[in-house]
Structures are given as C-alpha cells and as structure tokens.
Amino acid sequence: MAEDNKAPKPGQINIELDEAVAEGTYSNLAIINHSVSEFVVDFVNIMPGVPKNKVKSRIILTPQHAKRLLKALGENISRFESAHGEIKDYEQPPIPLNFGPTGQA
User: Fold this and answer.
1) Which residue of 57, 58, 77, 89 has the fewest CB atoms within a 10 Å radius of its CB?
2) Element (DSSP H or E) covering residue 75
C-alpha cells in the first residue's frame, strides 16, 4: 500500500535528484554551439589568474528542447524581476575569439 503513494499519477514525471547533482555546479560563462540536429551548451567557471579553465558541464538539447528552455528561462526571469526588480546586465569585456572549444557537434 505504501508503494501506491510513490507511484506517479498519469501525466506526472517521476524525477530523482541525487546528492552530488543537487549540489550544483557554478558557471559564469556558457558557450553555445549548434548543428542542424542539436544545441550544445558548455558551462564554464572562469576564474581570474587561471590560464586554462575547464568545461564543468555540457548539456545537449534538440532544437525543440532548446526553444522550450529559452521560453522557460524567459518566463522565470520575468517572474523573478516582478518579485525582485530588474536584473542588471553589466557590460562584460569581450571573450577572445580563440577562447573555448570550437567546431560543431
């Protein structure tokens, strides 16, 4: 009987979040590449004085899921700004053209 309470209802998705993933990974740079079939988003943590920074996480999305992510981020940013005020977009120095991975996925 107790198992019945844990079973997802029709239309629900059952998602598990383990402790290591729940800690998250800090990123202050995202590099986005795409091909005709996928979008590749590499998350990087750039630290001052570090000559070589590594990709901390890579997410690969279909074009349809990339568009859904864009919409979901936009909706969440709107809700955040409604509650907390406008997010300021400070000018950042341009990233050198030879920075990061290149090529198509």
Assistant:
1) 89
2) helix 63-84
Q: Look up residue 60 and give its DSSP letter.
A: E
Cα separation, 20 vs 16, in Å, equals 12
**Which residue would you say has higher pLDDT here, 66 or 11?**
66
d(CA 69, CA 65): 6
Digit-coded pLDDT (tens) for 70-102: 999 999 999 999 999 999 988 766 655 555 555
Alpha-carbon distance of 32 to 8, in angstroms, equals 34
pTM, two decimals, is 0.71
Spell out the residues 6+ positions from residue 43 whose beta carbon is closer than 8 angstroms to its own. Answer: 25, 27, 29, 30, 55, 56, 57, 58, 59
| Spatial contact of 59 and 75, defined as CB atoms under 8 Å apart | no
CA dist., res. 75 & res. 70, Å (int): 9
